[in-house]
Design a protein that fits this description.
Length: about 400
């Protein structure tokens, strides 16, 4: 059967902005979602492991690093959720006929994402307010319980990511939709038979540990002036974790490439000029990140760590671009280019002005937070003042 006969039509309204702009916002929006989402995904597991391994000594670097990471998680979760809305809007607009259909086919697990995120988010606060701030960490049992709670929370987030990968791959396969609907018309489907699913999901999961390592290193940079030894521990440990996860990513990445439908991997390796250039750039960025963090591992060199951090962010951005290209190549039955465009300049200008204002506000807010957490200053009369 020709899959195009069952793919729904686009809405009759024209797009409110040029397609290249909508695609750019989708890619950048997903990048802004992917960064905090990776911290949450890998950071949750990492904080559980670090707290557990330091359970017998609350002064150990392992315990302190795990606690710092766990305390920061609610902030990253809120960023991941709010930044998830951006690609959600653009993916619906550009690929609605595919995305809505796959979401309906797996409606029950898909809607459960909201509840799993809510419960896991709540757990991250329980750990902070019932354990860290309530004296429950005085004994080893309390510490072990808090790390177990973090583990359950992380499994919840890992499940959310898995459901996303199911939907993101199912929307690319219209040929499966009818048989899936005949199999279960009540939204109780998953895309488990998809060869791409496991390697694609693992690619995200392994990357999240690399990003969690980088996050720990950032914490190390942040406290460098106040606690040099602890700072060194976090930069070195974070860099080592990044290196380990990224080396593991090499076979996972090849597996993912191999699992793609016929001809797709070749497009990244010479078949498509832009695809190959961006893929090549991502490999170069990854190499730079590996070399720089390997150097940071040996002596906690802050400059090298920053080079690795920047190269890693660029690797992620390039990979997200490749991921978008893959969707465009595979979605031959859903072509946004067939939809007319009637640019609404007034709305577009309002959007751009609001976005710029929001960025300025966030930069100001971040600076304020950094100052608020800075070391307390000594007042002339000896009284300790908290930095404003
Ligand atoms: C905090 C828990 C979350 C985790 C761990 C998570 C994880 C993921 C993962 C792994 C993907 C990539 C799937 C793939 O391409 O195979 C993804 C994509 C996506 N996520 Fe999240 N996510 C989370 C929360 C959210 C929320 C709450 C939203 C919406 C408000 C959201 C919106 C999106 C969108 C729209 C995409 C696809 C973007 C695109 O295809 O361009 N995510 N997420």
């Amino acid at each position: 059967m020709d899959p195009s006969s069952i793919v729904p039509l686009f809405q009759p309204l024209p797009f409110p902005a040029p397609i290249w702009l909508l695609e750019t916002l989708l890619i950048l929006g997903f990048f802004l979602h992917a960064l905090p989402m990776n911290v949450v995904l890998g950071g949750g597991f990492l904080s559980a492991a670090l707290i557990f391994s330091g359970r017998n000594n609350k002064e150990s670097f392992s315990y302190r690093a795990g606690k710092a990471l766990a305390t920061s998680l609610p902030l990253f979760i809120s960023f991941a959720v709010t930044q998830g809305i951006v690609p959600l809007l653009f993916v619906q607009l550009l690929y609605g006929p595919a995305f809505y259909t796959s979401s309906i086919l797996m409606a029950v697990p898909w809607i459960s994402v909201i509840f799993i995120v809510l419960i896991s988010y709540y757990m991250s606060y329980v750990v902070i307010y019932r354990y860290f701030k309530n004296g429950a960490m005085q004994n080893t049992a309390g510490i072990v319980k808090s790390s177990m709670l973090l583990l359950v929370m992380s499994v919840g987030f890992a499940l959310v990511g898995f459901l996303f990968s199911n939907n993101m791959t199912l929307m690319l396969s219209p040929e499966k939709w009818l048989s899936m609907y005949s199999h279960n018309a009540n939204g109780l489907n998953l895309n488990l038979g998809e060869p791409q699913l496991i390697p694609r999901y693992l690619h995200f999961l392994v990357a999240s540990f690399a990003v969690a390592g980088m996050t720990l290193g950032i914490f190390g940079l942040y406290i460098a002036k106040r606690d040099a030894d602890f700072s060194k521990y976090m930069i070195v440990f974070g860099s080592k974790l990044y290196l380990g996860a990224t080396l593991l990513q090499v076979p996972v990445g090849f597996w993912y490439l191999k699992s793609l439908p016929a001809g797709m991997a070749q497009r990244f390796m010479g078949g498509d000029t832009i695809g190959t250039a961006v893929f090549g750039a991502s490999m170069v960025f990854m190499l730079v990140a590996i070399i720089a963090t390997a150097m940071a591992c040996t002596n906690a060199n802050k400059k090298m760590f920053l080079v690795g951090l920047t190269a890693n962010a660029l690797t992620i951005l390039a990979m997200i671009f490749n991921r978008h290209q893959l969707r465009v190549w595979l979605l031959t039955h859903v072509q946004p280019s067939t939809v007319p465009v009637a640019t609404q300049w007034d709305l577009l200008i309002t959007f751009v002005v609001s976005a710029v204002a929001l960025i300025v506000y966030l930069v100001w807010l971040s600076k304020l937070c950094v100052k608020a957490f800075a070391a307390p200053v000594q007042a002339p009369d000896g009284e300790r003042l908290a930095a404003q």
